[in-house]
Amino acid sequence: MSGSAWPSPAARRRDLAAVAALTAAAAVAYAIHSCVRLSRFRAGAYDLVIFDQAVRAYSRFEAPVSMVKGVHNGFGPGFCVLGDHWSPALALLAPLYWIHDGPATLLVAQAVLLALSIPFVWAYAFRAASRYGAGGGRVAHPVAAAYALSWPIAETVAFDFHEAAFAPLLTAVALERYQAGRGRAALLTALALLLVKEDMGLLLAGFGLFLLTRRRDRWPGALLVAGGVAATLVATSVLVPRFGGRTGYYWAYWTLGPDLPRAALHAVTRPGDVLALLADPPLKLRTAALTLAPVLFTALLSPAALALIPPLLERLLASTYPNWWTPRYHYTAFVVAPVFAAGVDGALRAAALMTRRAGTRAGTGRAARLVRGWAMLVLATALALVPFFSFGASLTPAFYAETTRTRAAQRAVAAVPDGALVEAADSLAPALSPRTRTLLWDRTPRWAPWVVADVGVRTFPFAGLRQQVERVARLRGHGYRVVFEQAGYVVLTTTPAPVAARSRMSIPAAATAAAKGALGRRRPSDRPATAHRATPARASHSAGPGGPGGATASSRDAASGGTGIRALTRAAPSRWGQPRTPVARSVSMSGSTLPRCAPQPSSAAATTAHHAGSGGPSC
């Protein structure tokens, strides 16, 4: 940024020092918030462990496999996350795992990435205000602070880790570079968004719509619109299935049609249905309003707001995945920087319009005062919204408190040995992921040698505590023994009890226990005759019958339609181009044998089951 924008070198140093301090403070605050949630067992397997397992694999130069995602969602234990979302940008975080291997690394990285977008939002506001004679720093400082406190950033920080962490930085850099006249740098940065998520082509198309309003950039704008839409189609239809995903797995527009061609035809021939869908349910309109509220809706006065249209329509036209249109989670982070950039531009345009009839000098002075007043109101709005979103929790002592359940959770995870294959309750899985092979404790039994259950509070993906209690009872009935139980946490295992513990049993009791175990292994009647019926959730496969002390591992695998634990425990290491496969080269999932980390056939039934069970956030 040119030094001529400041009245003196001292003013320049003060402004740059202020934005640097704000950026550093935001990074620290974001990291503390996320890491406190992690240490207090408020993070989850969905979605933190998914990314933890994938980035750990990247750090070992292996395919980005997430066993917890693959097993829960019916893809198999060797599922590549690139088959879930096209996010190769995650590989950039792999070197950080050479320094510290664990989920906290992702949370700190996310905090830094989000904070690094602040200087570019500040620079955009500073340059725009300076051009209008509004005093750059007096507008840019409150706008940047409001951005740092904004609810889309807060919800992203508070919901584990996601690829959305890259989006605010890349979009802010692209907009600031374009404003500075560096079109090539802006284009390259915008293109990098295509490595963040498969639908970022829609945001790229939105940038193209904005460029169409500028005479000298109409051709590049048209290319961005066409190229962005094409990139999204290629990512969702070619790249994601190539890495083991299912075409249409995240299709959410069933009200319009079962696929893109029929949905597009419906939208063109019956536009009234599209308008009705934008307000059904009404929460969609409230979320759209909240998206623009941080800048007091002045973004609507800027052509830059056109960039918001495709990504917002993607969410608001959905008829499934209600998390997409709620003002929670990380989804609004993809557009938060464009919202603030358009808000600044819209405020300056409004001020200029309101003072047009005044003389040149008087009008400029009045416009400057209006814009500075707007900036202070934007900051006041951000502060007023803090208690209503996730950052508000960090203002209370309870957020940092270590409770009885927290201490019990620490003991529960400590009871599981390193390297074990373990099914862990959603909130406990992040603590186990760095040192065990972690699966989600699910409605579907996986029959892992270790299980860490939670019967104290309802946990994802169960519908209620009763289901969780029944799952623990079922494990006990199939030969699992309890090694820890406190404050609602139960640790169970199939491993033999220590010799010292067994020696305390009387000889008759030991003989009786051995006889019961032998009978349990031999009697087919001890095994359930039908598969456990899964309640609606993300998993599309049914629970498997049998269990330790009932059927053998191989027979349970064949009968249950669940993940073969024998295959899981015999997994071989993977390399790029050589899928991470067990010795048997395949695993049984939902009754079909599918290659691991390889393209899998599209299943309409599985997709339908998935849509019926989108009860929780998905990565």
Question: What is the topology?
Answer:
Layout: H1 9-39, H2 45-59, H3 67-72, H4 103-116, H5 118-131, H6 136-149, H7 151-158, H8 166-179, H9 183-192, H10 200-211, H11 218-242, H12 260-269, H13 271-278, H14 283-292, H15 309-316, H16 336-354, H17 360-385, H18 404-414, E1 421-424, H19 429-432, E2 437-440, E3 450-454, H20 465-477, E4 481-486, E5 489-493, H21 499-503, H22 507-522, H23 553-560, H24 565-569, E6 586-589, E7 592-595, H25 604-612
Parallel strand pairs: 1-2, 1-3
Antiparallel strand pairs: 3-5, 4-5, 6-7
Helix pairs in contact: 1-4, 1-6, 5-6, 5-8, 5-16, 6-17, 8-9, 8-16, 10-11, 10-15, 12-13, 16-17
Protein name: DUF2079 domain-containing protein
Region (Disordered): 514-619
Keywords: Membrane, Transmembrane, Transmembrane helix
What does this structure look like?
- Residues 502-564 and 569-619 have low confidence and may be disordered.
- It is built from 25 helices and 7 strands.
- 51% of the residues lie in helices and 5% in strands.
- The protein folds into 2 domains: 7-46 and 106-245 and 274-395, no CATH class; 404-612, no CATH class.
- It has helices at residues 9-39, 45-59, 67-72, 103-116, 118-131, 136-149, 151-158, 166-179, 183-192, 200-211, 218-242, 260-269, 271-278, 283-292, 309-316, 336-354, 360-385, 404-414, 429-432, 465-477, 499-503, 507-522, 553-560, 565-569, 604-612, and strands at 421-424, 437-440, 450-454, 481-486, 489-493, 586-589, 592-595.
- With 619 residues, the chain is mainly alpha-helical.
- A 5-stranded mixed β-sheet has the order 2-1-3-5-4, sandwiched between helices.
- The protein is globular, with a radius of gyration of 27 Å.
- Helix 1 (9-39) packs parallel to helix 6, helix 10 (200-211) runs antiparallel to helix 11 and helix 12 packs across helix 13 (271-278).
